[in-house]
Design brief:
With 299 residues, the chain is an alpha/beta fold. It has 2 domains: 6-134, Response regulator (Rossmann fold), CATH 3.40.50.2300; 145-298, 2-Layer Sandwich (Alpha-Beta Plaits). The chain has helices at residues 14-24, 36-45, 62-71, 89-98, 110-134, 145-162, 176-183, 185-200, 227-244, 274-290; strands at residues 6-10, 29-33, 50-54, 80-84, 102-105, 166-173, 209-214, 217-223, 259-265, 296-298. The strands form 2 sheets. It has a 5-stranded parallel beta sheet, with helices on both faces. It has a 5-stranded mixed beta sheet with strand order 7-8-6-9-10, sandwiched between helices. The mean pLDDT is 91.
């Protein structure tokens, strides 16, 4: 793989943990925990590419950890390799039925462990690539509506759980139909691509993203940003599009392409459902258009 994968080893036996770490640390970044409870805590705050999970442990056993991982949308796609001293085919079948990708019996061969880990990571890499392609807008090459809906749902849950703000922006290219009518649909497509890339280039934090919402509309999801910060970011977006200086002689509000933006932000005591947050941003967008376009309205 082009980058070092993050592998979490979950085993209550310190000798097994050390042997597995020594086996894999040459190729991967390896993390060690000694219980199912600590594994579930670990994946709440850290990204993991693969988990090697002992079946028999005090407290929560490997089967229960697997069930909880698969029930969580954030962790359900992490490949799990079970490792156990139990050679029963029934136990192996149970693990695979619950969603484990492979099953290794103790005592294990380091070379076999390396190969099986490598194979599962290659499969994950291919699946991640397919998932990414399914989430990218074909024209603008930025995230699409599907990606927006999935990630907004996750960020909204995190915002609600942690009590942190979450801002959503909806933006629309002003008088875009008139642009298409004036310059043609091929020029319209080029305009959409240029605007999309200009907007995406303003996302400096890894958690922020711009998606194509549909047609000439775009959306931004900004975890941790309050209303004031979201307004500052929206101004950056508006200025970036103005700086493109794409001629639009058919516009009714400027001689170049501009955008209007609506903002909605979760607040203490006023936490919107995720779709209601989008609806509030949409109301802000319509207010910006009614006020003359090329402007920002925060709800």
């Amino acid at each position: 793989m082009s980058k070092r994968a993050k592998v979490l080893i979950v085993d209550d036996d310190p000798i097994n943990r050390l042997v597995l770490e020594k086996t894999l640390k040459g190729e991967h970044d390896v993390f060690l925990v000694e219980s199912g409870e600590k594994a579930l805590t670990f994946v709440k705050t850290a990204q993991v590419d693969l988990i090697i999970l002992d079946v028999i442990m005090p407290g929560i056993d490997g089967y229960q950890v697997l069930v909880e991982l698969k029930e969580n949308p954030i962790t359900q796609s992490i490949p799990i390799i079970f490792i156990s001293a139990n050679r029963s085919h029934d136990d192996e079948a149970k693990g695979l039925e619950l969603g484990a990708m492979d099953y290794i019996t103790k005592p294990f061969s380091p070379s076999i462990v390396r190969v099986r880990v490598r194979n599962q990571l290659l499969i994950k890499q291919k699946n991640d690539l397919l998932e990414m392609l399914a989430s990218i807008d074909g024209l603008t090459e930025i995230p699409n509506r599907r990606y927006l809906d999935e990630n907004l749902s996750r960020e909204w849950r995190r915002s609600k759980r942690n009590g942190t703000p979450l801002s959503v922006l909806l933006m629309d290219i002003d008088h875009f139909k008139r642009y298409n009518d004036c310059y043609g649909h091929r020029a319209g497509d080029e305009c959409l691509k240029d605007v999309a890339q200009a907007l995406a280039a303003q996302c400096e934090r890894g958690s922020d993203f711009i998606a194509r919402y549909g047609g000439e509309e775009f959306a931004a999801v900004l975890p941790g940003m309050d209303k004031h910060e979201a307004m500052e970011f929206a101004n950056k977006l508006r200025n970036a599009v103005n700086a493109l200086n794409i001629e639009h002689k058919a516009s009714l509000n400027a001689d170049h392409i501009t955008i209007s933006i609506g903002i909605a932000t979760t607040q203490m005591g006023r936490v919107y459902a995720e779709q209601a947050l989008l609806e509030e941003a949409d109301l802000g967008l319509y207010a910006a258009k009614d006020a003359g376009r090329d402007r920002i309205v925060a709800r």
